[in-house]
Design brief:
- This protein has ten helices and 16 strands.
- It is globular and about 65 Å long.
- Helices cover 29% and strands 25% of the residues.
- With 364 residues, it is an alpha/beta fold.
- Strands 1, 2, 6, 7, 8, 9, 15 and 16 form an eight-stranded mixed beta sheet that branches. Strands 4-5-3-11-12-13-10-14 form an eight-stranded mixed beta sheet, with helices on both faces.
- The chain starts with 6 loop residues before the first strand and ends in a 15-residue tail after the last helix.
- The protein binds flavin-adenine dinucleotide.
- The site of flavin-adenine dinucleotide has 43 residues, from helix 1, helix 2, strand 10, strand 14 and helix 10.
Length: 364
Amino acid sequence: MSKPKQYDSIVVGGGIIGMLSALQLHAAGRHVLLVERGATGRESSWAGGGILSPLYPWRYPDAVTALASWGQPRYPELLASLLRDGGLDPEYRPSGLLILTDDEVDAAQDWARRFSIRMDSVDASTARGIVPGLGPDRGGVWMPDVGQARNPRLVKSVRAVLEAKSVSIREHTEVTGFISRAGRCAGVETTDGEIHADQVLVAGGAWTGGLLAGLGSTIPVEPVRGQMILFRGNADFLTRMVLADDRYAIPRRDGRIVFGSTLEHTGFDKSTTDEARNDLQAVARSLLPGLARFDIENQWAGLRPGKSDNIPVIGEHPKLPGLFVNAGHFRNGVVLAPASTRLVADLMLGRPPILDPTPYAIHP
Ligand SMILES: Cc1cc2nc3c(=O)[nH]c(=O)nc-3n(C[C@H](O)[C@H](O)[C@H](O)COP(=O)(O)OP(=O)(O)OC[C@H]3O[C@@H](n4cnc5c(N)ncnc54)[C@H](O)[C@@H]3O)c2cc1C
């Protein structure tokens, strides 16, 4: 005899993508269970910088811009609602993003015009006006509307809202396989037994490819390590985010400054290295020489869900109807999360999708 379903939807993975997906499904009236192998919000979504824009956004495919531009104007209200509904502040800060670049200003501006995004080209002296204390004598582009959230607080605030809304969460439970019944996904196998549901959503970050490997279609998501360092700065030292040569500084409200990040293909190894710390510190001091007077308070690493074309996978699995995937956001999981989680919820609920889902579909 087949087991009765316990939930409408199971979400696998308690990062920003899984938690916001669970919230969307709950808001639509689904009875949702979130299953997390460890504790929620402790992997990539905890480690990230929280810049609410892709870095060098003009370099990305339009499919990434489409998701980012849907979410960016909605982010301030989303973060305000998290604070309202859960009581924890994700620390939204509309700090703007200065990008130093010598030869990409035209490409950047063409892109910004095409997508109606506010961006000014700036010379070296204007750049210094925006970020006093800048080391290099370089211009670039200024994006005044780019904000940030503080990752560890963001994931805690989403978790608090899930709890406030009584969404079921099962931590320290690893999903090890999928239950198939009459050709459809009917739940998950876990280290704590089977759990049954009408639909399953996998939002397993860098681990998604491995989890789905047995099903036949390759989900090309691989871990890419990113290391960060944290300066104990003060609130007056830096108020804008600044990016140059793929390294960035993010000033938090309390004066701390996150500086990152490395891009390393080291498998699932999440350890930090002295080499990265020294390299990040040296680059930080040449970008913002005044940082030399602040101590490094912390260093950490996270595993991004890397995908070589940068386009996340969002959709139903072609080999197992009822199983959905939302993963592979690589360097942009926070900025893409509102659109990506809304889109997957639309597909799971049979609602008209906010965006054409074709570019994100899983290839059979
Ligand atoms: C250093 C760094 C800087 C970054 N900066 C930015 C930025 O400024 N802006 C931005 O938008 N993005 C940034 N990112 C990227 C962003 O953090 C990620 O794209 C995003 O967090 C991915 O979210 P996720 O929920 O898919 O993955 P994760 O947060 O990794 O969550 C996946 C979860 O699934 C769980 N899981 C995996 N397998 C199983 C299983 N079998 N059973 C149960 N649970 C499972 C894991 O334990 C984990 O909790 C950065 C990332 C890093 C590392």
